[in-house]
């Protein structure tokens, strides 16, 4: 009787059940939030995190030889790199080379070894045809002599050192090559020959083109967004349709149209000749000028829309108040209005810059050989040479550079906002 009375009093005590109910309500709210976010999180993991993780892994992946010739790879990893590998490793190489014809293994290791030296594919095919049948050899067979008889290259230490470089399951070869670096004979990192240096200039070119396109879009998009934000709603909506109109046309069609407009007999050159500004056609396509024209046209709406959304929320009374207090109209605009648009400028510039970094079709169609960006070489190694490691390394470095630039830009913008506040 007394126990029941105590429980009843506890349940009716102010705050007794209320705390438990609040805890249950909070847990229920969190579960609902997790349930709502879970599909989006799963989608991002499947289509964003996993592909990027796979790309990062492929930039250091070196498992081709280990997957097809595990015993050979292990023997070469244990080899000291002098003379020739031991007879057991050579016997394993011969046996695994013979078995590699099944399942496409021979093609995989041939492609991988060709990255080290282009002679390997032909050397493997010749060796495979000259190998003795399994019944013609025994445990005492001198495989160094047999392989050297098939092709003298197998008697050279450098031939086996090239295969040894492909034996580890991970490698920094692709990442170093993406920076015009390589490992020397002693294992140290060094720059490659000057005539073979390509990618540092490609990365520099990519940054210059992306930065130039971003600055041009900002110079054109800021006044356009300001005009859209200050005009009456009816006129502004009509002009906004014109801004969004390029989204209704295929990227490929828009790029091809610039080739027609900028070519020697195109409308631009013919118009300039007809009004007397030039005597002969200008080279406006298949060079850097054509790249800037086409990319600015495509990316300009991505600058205008963030700026417009921010400018639309800025009250004009601040600028009028500054002018009424004696400020020059331009000073009022620059010191009062522009600082309020920093968030829109930051969003627009980083959006355009990141999109410009990854452009491939536009520079490939309207640019020349000296105007191709990193994405062109990623596509080249993916589609033409099937060198996925090199393509992944270039993509990974581009991702890292983009993230670093974004962090620096974000910090600078925040610092400016703190100083102004």
From TrEMBL:
Highest taxon, organism lineage: Bacteria
Annotated membrane topology: Multi-pass membrane protein
Transmembrane stretches, start-end: 33-57, 207-229, 241-261, 289-310, 345-368, 388-409
Cellular compartments annotated: Cell membrane
Matches recorded under InterPro entries: MetI-like (IPR000515), MetI-like_sf (IPR035906)
Signal peptide, first to last residue: none
SUPFAM superfamilies: MetI-like (SSF161098)
ABC transmembrane type-1 domain sequence ranges: 203-409
Keywords of this entry: Cell membrane, Membrane, Transmembrane, Transmembrane helix, Transport
Family: Belongs to the binding-protein-dependent transport system permease family. CysTW subfamily.
Record protein name field: ABC transporter permease
High-level lineage: Bacteria, Pseudomonadati, Pseudomonadota, Gammaproteobacteria, Oceanospirillales
């Amino acid at each position: 009787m007394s126990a029941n009375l105590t429980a009843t009093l506890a349940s009716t005590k102010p705050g007794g059940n209320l705390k438990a109910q609040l805890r249950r309500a909070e847990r229920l709210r969190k579960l609902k939030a997790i349930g709502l976010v879970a599909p989006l999180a799963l989608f991002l993991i499947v289509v964003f995190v996993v592909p990027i993780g796979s790309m990062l892994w492929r930039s250091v992946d070196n498992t081709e030889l280990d997957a097809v010739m595990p015993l050979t790879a292990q023997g070469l990893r244990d080899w000291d790199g002098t003379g020739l590998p031991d007879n057991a490793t050579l016997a394993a190489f011969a046996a695994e080379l013979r078995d590699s014809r099944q399942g496409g293994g021979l093609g995989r290791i041939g492609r991988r070894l060709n990255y080290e030296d282009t002679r390997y594919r032909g050397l493997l095919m010749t060796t495979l045809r000259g190998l003795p049948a399994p019944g013609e050899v025994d445990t005492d067979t001198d495989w160094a002599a047999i392989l050297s008889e098939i092709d003298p290259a197998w008697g050279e230490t450098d031939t086996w050192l090239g295969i040894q470089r492909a034996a580890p399951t991970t490698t920094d070869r692709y990442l170093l090559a993406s920076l015009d670096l390589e490992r020397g004979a002693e294992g140290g990192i060094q720059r490659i020959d000057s005539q073979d240096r390509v990618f540092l200039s490609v990365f520099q070119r990519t940054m210059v083109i992306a930065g130039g396109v971003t600055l041009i879009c900002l110079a054109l998009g800021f006044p356009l967004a300001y005009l859209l934000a200050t005009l009456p709603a009816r006129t502004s909506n009509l002009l906004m349709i014109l801004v969004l109109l390029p989204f209704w046309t295929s990227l490929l069609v828009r790029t091809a149209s610039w080739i027609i407009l900028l070519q020697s007999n195109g409308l631009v050159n013919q118009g300039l000749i007809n009004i007397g500004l030039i005597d002969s056609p200008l080279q406006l396509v298949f060079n850097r000028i054509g790249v800037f024209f086409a990319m600015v046209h495509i990316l300009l709406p991505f600058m205008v829309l963030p700026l417009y959304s921010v400018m639309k929320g800025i009250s004009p009374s601040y600028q009028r108040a500054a002018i009424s207090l004696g400020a020059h109209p331009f000073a009022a605009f620059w010191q009062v209005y522009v600082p309020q648009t920093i968030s829109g400028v930051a969003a627009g510039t980083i959006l355009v810059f990141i999109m410009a970094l990854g452009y491939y079709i536009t520079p490939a169609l309207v640019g020349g050989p000296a105007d191709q960006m990193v994405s062109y070489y990623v596509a080249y190694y993916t589609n033409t040479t099937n060198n996925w490691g090199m393509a992944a390394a270039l993509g990974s470095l581009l991702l890292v550079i983009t993230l670093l630039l974004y962090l620096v830009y974000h910090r600078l913008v925040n610092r400016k906002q703190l100083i102004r506040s």
